[in-house]
Structure formats: structure tokens, C-alpha cells
Amino acid sequence: MFEQILFYFFAIVAVISAVNVVAGKNPIACAISLIVTLGALAGVFVLQDAHFVATIQVLVYAGAIMVLFVFVIMLLNLGPEDLDKEGRFTRLKGVGVLFAMAGAALLIWNFADYSAAMARIGPGYGGLEQISGKLFTEYIIPFEAISVLLMAAVVGAVVIAKREL
Amino acid sequence: MVSTSHLLILSAVLFSLGIAGVVIRRNAIVVMMCIELMLNAVNVSFVAFARQMGGVDGHLIVFFVMAVAAAEAGVGLALVIALFRHKATVNLDEVNLMKG
Fold it and tell me: Which of B23, B48, B73 comes nearest A65 by C-beta?
């Protein structure tokens, strides 16, 4: 019961701050709202016994990636005249939002009566030992591919953001 | 115990909000934040199904998704900086060089 209340609390916080990300005027306010969403989702992950994922969510997502976002927003230093260019709510945008809402309704309608038996989990589920045991044996090739991807991304980011190419 | 369907509904709501944000926002940085929101919605689904199946393979895929999101954020923000340097704007409506 307590778990349910916590889940609803985290879910409502996540959705409200996600709405603020989409609707917020100021990019910094959007970034702070996104950090709140990520923190609430870390709480949801803990309730699902995904302790390692929740830790990484806070450290990497809310910590590193969002700091990068805030850093870039501060670096660009957009004035009020840049922020007012958001544009009117045209008919095409309305159609897009309508499609997104229709997709959400379809998904919710399909998921609402989804039920399957929960597997029994042993102690240490979602912990560092289990995750790393699988990561460095069964998933070693994707892991190495990810390291190559990160290397390529670092080189690409440096080349793209350099002052003269 | 929270049922899987509740988590899937949370995931669907967050993903749709992300899509709506990508469609209606014109600020490039906010559009990238909405993409991060969609990636996180998918992570919620992966964790929910991993818990239901009782394995940790879903957690590993979430780990990989986060690494890809980090790479995407790095390159994307570099693109935003390059764009701002050349056109002094981050408004996507004004970036129409390749518009037919």
C-alpha cells in the first residue's frame, strides 16, 4: 500500500514537471523541470527494485547530461527577444498535438487491462553484482560498441563545435 | 506492488508529452530536452518489463540507452552551439537552409 502511494506521488510529480518542460517559456525553467522529472523517475525505478538504474539515472542523467544542458543555455545567453520567437500555435502544431494525444489514448487503452504474473525475485535483484555479471559476459559486445560510440561522439562534438573547421 | 500496466501508462503519457514538445516547441535546446524525456519514458517501460520477467536484461538495455542519450546530448548541443555561432539563433523556424 505504502509502495502504491509512493508510486503515485512520483508518477504525478514526473508528469506535472514533464508538462512544464513542454510548456515552459524559459529554457532554464524547462531544464530544472526536466531534472525534477528525472529525479521522480529515479524514485519509480527504486520502487521497481532497479537500484543500479536509479543510481545511474541520478548520477549520469540528472547530474552530467543536465549540467551540460544548463551549461549550454548559460553559454548562449539568450535574451528576451530570442525567447519570444516561439511562434503562434498554428493549425499544423495543433494537428501534431492531437496526433500525440491520440497515440497516448491508444496506448493507455491498450495497457489499461494488461496484466501478467509478476516473477519472484531473489535478494540482490537489480544490484551491482547481478548487472555487472551480465554486462561483462553476455553483453560484452554491445558494451564495447557503446565505448566506440562514445569515442566517436566526443570526436564529433569537438569537431562540430570548433571555431573554424 | 505496482502493476506493470500502471508503469506502461506512465511511460505512454511521458512519451506523448515528449512528442508534443518536439512538435510544438521551436527552441532547439527545449526540443532536445523533449527527446531526453521520450528516451526516459522508454526506460520506464524497460524497467517495468524487467521487473515483471524477473531478469536484469532490461536494466542493461536502459544502461545502453543512457549511454546513447549522453552521446546524443553531446553532439546535439555541439550542433546547437555551431548553429548559434553561424546564424545567431536557436529558433528552428529560422534554420531553413535546406528547405525545398
Answer: B73
pTM: predicted TM-score of the whole model, two decimal places: 0.91
Distances (CA, A) of A165 to A150, A160, B79: 21, 8, 13
Residues 6+ apart with CB under 8 A from B22: B31, B34, B35, B38
Name the fold adopted by A1-108: Four Helix Bundle (Hemerythrin (Met), subunit A) (1.20.120)
- From the CA of B49, how many Å to the nearest CA of chain A? 9
Enter the DSSP assignment of A127.
Answer: S
B40 vs A57: CA distance, rounded Å: 9
A residues 116-135 closer than 8 Å to B (CB): 116, 118-121, 125-126, 130-131, 134-135
pLDDT per residue as tens digits for the range A55-90: 999 999 888 999 999 999 999 887 777 776 676 777
- Dump pLDDT digits (tens) for B5-43: 899 999 999 999 999 999 888 889 999 999 999 999 999
Q: Radius of gyration (Cα) for chain A, nearest Å?
A: 20
Residue B91 pairs in a beta bridge with: B27
Backbone angles phi, psi at A22, to 5 degrees: -75, -35
CATH code reported for the domain at B4-94: 1.10.287.3510
- Whether ipTM exceeds 0.90: yes
Query: B96 to chain A, minimum CA–CA distance in Å?
Result: 15
